[in-house]
Amino acid sequence: MLQNIRDNSQGWIAKTIIGIIVALMALTGIEAMFTSSSSKQNAAEVNGEEVTQNELSQAVDMQRRQLAQQLAQQLGKDFDPALLDEKLLRESALKGLIERKLLLQAAADDKFAFSEAAVDQQLLMTPEFQVDGKFSADRFDQVIRQLGYSRLQFRQMLTQEMLIAQTRAGIAGSAFVTDAQVEAFARLEKQTRDSATLTIAANTAGVSVSDDEVKAHYDQHAKEFMSPEQVVLDYIELKKSAFFDKVQVKDADLQAAYQQEIANLTEQRRAAHILIEVGDKVNDQQAKAKLEEIQQRLAKGEDFAALAKEFSQDPGSSTKGGDLGYAGKGVYDPAFEDALYALNKDQVSQPVRSDYGWHLIKLLGVEAPSVPSFASLKDKLTADLKSQQVEQKFVEVTKQLQDAAFESADLSQPAQDLGLKVQTTAAFGREGGEGLTANRAVIQAAFSPQVLEEGSNSNVLELDPDTVLVVRAKEHLQPQQLPLEQVAGAIRNQLVHDKAAAAAKAKGEALLAGLRDGKVALAARQDGIEWKVLEAVSRGQDGVDPAVLQTLFRMPKPEGQDKSEYASLSARDGSFVIVRLKGVNQAAAPSDEEKAQYRRFLASRAGQQDFSAYRAELEHKAKIEKY
Length: 627
Hints:
Elements (H helix, E strand, L loop, with lengths): L1 H27 L13 E5 L2 E4 H23 L10 H24 L6 H9 L5 E2 L2 E2 L1 H10 L4 H22 L6 H12 L1 E9 L10 H10 L9 E10 L11 H13 L4 E10 L6 H16 L4 H8 L3 H4 L4 E5 L6 H7 L11 E2 L3 E11 L6 H34 L4 H7 L4 E2 L15 H7 L2 H5 L7 E4 L2 E11 L6 H34 L7 E2 L2 E2 L1 E6 L8 H7 L12 E6 L5 E10 L6 H30 L2 E3 L1
């Protein structure tokens, strides 16, 4: 089990630890749960638990930025961030926050829980927090600091993620499908279709658009041609790096740090174990009794590794004779660790009870720590001590900056007091700009009531672990109507495209009507356009437009062998596509391996649907008030 948890930590927890933060928390605004709010107003209440306006604002801001980035990648220069619907963003963000609180409340009601040791184990075995395969407190602090968390905050977040995952696994993992469902799905999934497509292109060559048409479109869609709301900021920036040349390290401090460094070195111990789990099927006494039987066989001279392979219920280590490899202190369950460090090499412990069950532990080897010389560590120790002093100085001056900014009516006095320079950003909107104006905290502060409406200095903002700043609105640029000459070209191009698409559609629909009623004879070429034949097309066919595939597999089966069914669609480029279905081919019966794959897929999908239904039921029963 211990090794299994170690392996699992490199599965879902390792893969999601960053993904959760970047994606899920971005979509639901979880990071706001740990951010202090200056507003006492709530956005909603979920069974008496509040969702603050600050939580909602942060979630909306994050969604806006993510959506803007995605659309900018898809549309390029044609994308206007000002067109994002603020109301829809707010509704989506609030829905995510409410769903999250409902799931956490339900987990608490159902007594779902993780022990402190289990959370510790996940943190210790997460690769993102390791250096050279071992947990590093410095690396852990670095990662979570970049994400804006303290240790306690990150631990709380991880515990909540584990609770929600436990709830999801309990519901989604119980889903099942019948043999009949698998057979029916296999028939549909393996089915192929014989078809052909005819594409009538949207020809823009002969399309003209007058100035009057451009002007009329501009007047009718005036709200679509507005400049985005923008702000220009003044700011003062404080960097930690500015203090490094201002601190000195004493020799006595270096010697003391060296002694502390070598005192902290610990040996590595290679353990093997035999685990009998305690659970629903085996109680504590039964598990211990089983382990004592194994202990008696060891006393008679049987091999530990062979018995581990036969009896140990830790799948991650049993196949390796119970070998857990080398590890230092702080990795294993406390009871397990205490027993391990009381053993001599090749000695086997008495039965040991941990959170996972009963163990017999064998010490396979010991690696003594290698003691480095003072000379080899001097540069590192010097850097560490300077960093500590710089960190302390940085914190002190940051506090001075916070106080000065709060007490001042502008930024000039704080800048003068601390020897800093007032700088100015370029104008940027709610989707952010470049450099520091792309930072979420800066964007949120810039458009906050405190800065934008009250005209106050912001609180100290952390740009990154080594940089803080205070901002102040210098200029607030309200949305304005863009002049016709600035958007006329884009309007003209759009109208040309629309006219060409409409002409292609009219031509295509006339041809389609003729084919359906027989007034137009089916030929290899229709109006000079050749049919593109698609034989035995599968649902996931490569090289075929997904929209065509979707249309094709929605069409009914032709009534006769010599008859065809027709459908159509308008493509993104404005062309009109006629789809002709000639026949449906049923596939051979699925193999056992294919059935197993289909069963897993259908069960997973059913589990997701069950979990979605569970969330909907929680929402239906909950008392939710939105303000």
